[in-house]
Amino acid sequence: MRVPLSWLREYVDLPAEVGGREVATRLIAAGLEVELVERLGADLTGPLVVGQVLAIEELTEFKKPIRYCQVDVGEANGTGQPQNIVCGARNFAVGDKVVVVLPGAVLPGGFKISARKTYGHLSEGMICSTRELGVGDDHDGILVLPPEHEAGTDAIALLELLDEVLDIAVTTDRGYCLSMRGVAREAATAFGLPLRDPALLDVPAADGAGYPVRIEDEAACDRFVARTVTGVRPDARSPIWLQRRLQKSGLRPISLPVDITNYVMLELGQPLHAYDHSRLAGPIVVRRAAAGERLTTLDNVGRTLHGDDLVIADDRGPIGLAGVMGGAETEIADAPPVERSPLAPEGTTDIVIEAAHFDPVTVARAARRHRLGSEAARRFERGVDPQAAGAAAQRAVDLLVLLGGGTAGAGVTDLGTPAPPATVELRADHPDRVAGVAYGREVVVRRLQEVGCTVTGTDLLAVTAPSWRPDLTDPNDLAEEVLRLEGYEALPATLPRPPAGRGLTEGQRLRRRVGRALAGAGYVETLNYPFVGEKSWDGLGLPADDPRRQAVRLANPLSEEEPLLRTTLLPGLLDALRRNHGRGSQDLALFETGLVFRPTGRETAPVRPPVTRRPTDEEIAALDASLPPQPRRVAVVLAGAREPAGWWGSGRPAEWADAIEAARVVAREAGVELIVERDQHAPWHPGRCAALRVRLDGERRLVGHAGELHPRVVKALGLPERACAMELDLDVLQAAGGGPVAGPAISTFPVATQDVALVVDNAVPAAEVEAALRAGAGELLESVRLFDVFTGEQLGAGRKSLAYALRFRATDRTLTADEATAAREAAVATAISRTGATLRGA
């Protein structure tokens, strides 16, 4: 909403020294968003005057038409003699009044005017177009003024070229500020000054003699006012002051009736529409459109209407899309030819004014359905004052009579009964409790009355919102009005005081430890959206019956290509891997922790609790029952070099073992020992995939998978070759960990190291051999590490050698060689009995 300061002063007596910036500051403090204060004419200096064309000499010896004009500028040039001016425009004639800028003046943009010789003649100034004056975009023709202005009159004051305009971004809850009336009310409150409400007019009551109107859908149109004006001069034009106010407000002058409806809309916030009385056939009807009906709107576009569209119709059919745009068949016909529809007749003398109140949702849906934004729709969809319709119609009638020479029709049509504003109960201290400031009842009542509310009561206030504030429906809405008018800057800045004895939960500590550990291992954390599509499952090669394909579908997804919630972290991580690799990053190690959503099919239908009170325990339980399980997981992806090459060596590429090691890093932070087993599970390579398990409640629980991705998955997703991935369930890991991780005991006694090499069948997992060694070594064993795997002819076909380093240590003494050897032999004996191993070299 563009608000000229000169227009605003008509309704609020702002002090003369108060400029646009101070007004903007006050309005911003009151909660409005003033984006810009534009100073019109700031770089304009005179003399700029009205001139009358006395004579025109056509200069034909040049390539384009040039005119040498004599213009009377009165005494503005100090001599009283006509000015000789060269001009190329041709839309004016002898006797016309024009705007003349004399030598010494400066036009907008720093364009200095001086007398100069051009086209063989001395040009003493310039005859101006609207663009040169900064009042419009028309540069093709000269601005021709009405004949009543005398030559020599100051055109700067006449055209109101010096002004300040506030550009306000009106939010959806402050639709009343899409009018001078609404902004003036805010300015009056901000400066503590009285308001001259332009809607306070004497409006005649409905008498049944006005233009006939019938409302068939009262839910979509609860008020319709129709007034008639006859005998309007078709050649009547909008006065300069009206045109300039429209231009400053961002609208283009068109014709007197249209300009008046736009002017009243800007003034009072009530959109109006003017019909050519002679083009109406029968009574005006407000109804829903029939499917397939067509309407040619004022922009000369034929539109097929929808059954939910609310239309204004007569006996022939729709003549307007209610609250959005009128139809071309009943358009006022006295606009210039370039603006007039070819369907309109020449010259309109009798006009029917419509001022109605339409349902905001109906108007908003129609405007979006037809992609037809308009100033009227913009106001209706934010809420228009239903009580202003009569005053707006009366204001338009008065201006048509005053400026167009018309006669107001005796009849007044006023149908419908808008719903009265709701009364809200508000405790007098409620704003105090919301703000943490003691305002007191007197301040609360005064501020609500300044907004326009009616307030009764003592401790419990009964507050009735004004008709122009449909957004005030809740005690917190009223409290916000008190807070914003008292000033948000006056609110104290206090930090919430957390309850004593609370801190991070064990789950939060685990997630932080895991993040630090993975970052320390060289991984970079990424945060991905939890939205996926069916193509994600196809790219991962998931079977049709895979439970990961059973996902929650969003009712209103951000993208139709990703309407599902993820059931695994891998799609987002792999997409980040592909994107970074495509942008030149070759060596990548990424990780993410987050929730996945795994519906079971047993979820109940969600309930919708009321917003007027806290949900009951039963309602909260019903909401919880409707939610799918949401386990928290951690996943990593790797590609490229795990150990970079350099002067120290050739480096090493990332492989499946690094993904398993990342899982062990996570498990160590939870205090859990992972059990690693061979497995086949999409999207991993069947020969390089490990199932990861933990012991929980006496059984081995699957906690995730790790390994190298399947080559088909790598190709389908456009990933680097030999990409690897790992995913673990953090919730299961936390449960298996059994609480906070205890710090390791540090022994002061030396370690005894014993190596052992065992030959087993290729089918025997190394983890099974390691578990047997641990079981047999007893309490003295500190760690087991596999440091070599060997296969060869000397071992025989289908056999492999596993070499382990066993570390023994006692907490209270230095171990003897015999004790370490005995522990080693016990470990070997257990491994031989459990796995069928043989001691290499024996």
Structural account:
It comes from Streptomyces chisholmiae. Tetramer of two alpha and two beta subunits. Its cofactor is Mg(2+). Pfam families: B3_4, B5, FDX-ACB, tRNA_bind, tRNA_synthFbeta. With about 850 residues, the chain is an alpha+beta fold. The protein is about 25% helix and about 25% strand. The chain contains 22 helices and 42 strands. The strands form twelve sheets. Strands 28-31-32-38-37-36-35 form a seven-stranded mixed β-sheet, with helices on both faces. Strands 3, 4, 5, 6, 11 and 12 form a six-stranded antiparallel β-sheet that branches. The protein has a five-stranded mixed β-sheet with strand order 14-17-20-21-22. The protein is elongated and about 130 Å long. About 0% of the residues have low confidence.
Strand content: 25-35%
The mean pLDDT is 91
Structural class of the secondary structure composition? alpha+beta
Largest sheet: 7 strands, mixed
Write a compact overview of the structure shown.
Tetramer of two alpha and two beta subunits. Belongs to the phenylalanyl-tRNA synthetase beta subunit family. Type 1 subfamily. The protein has 842 residues and is of the alpha+beta class.
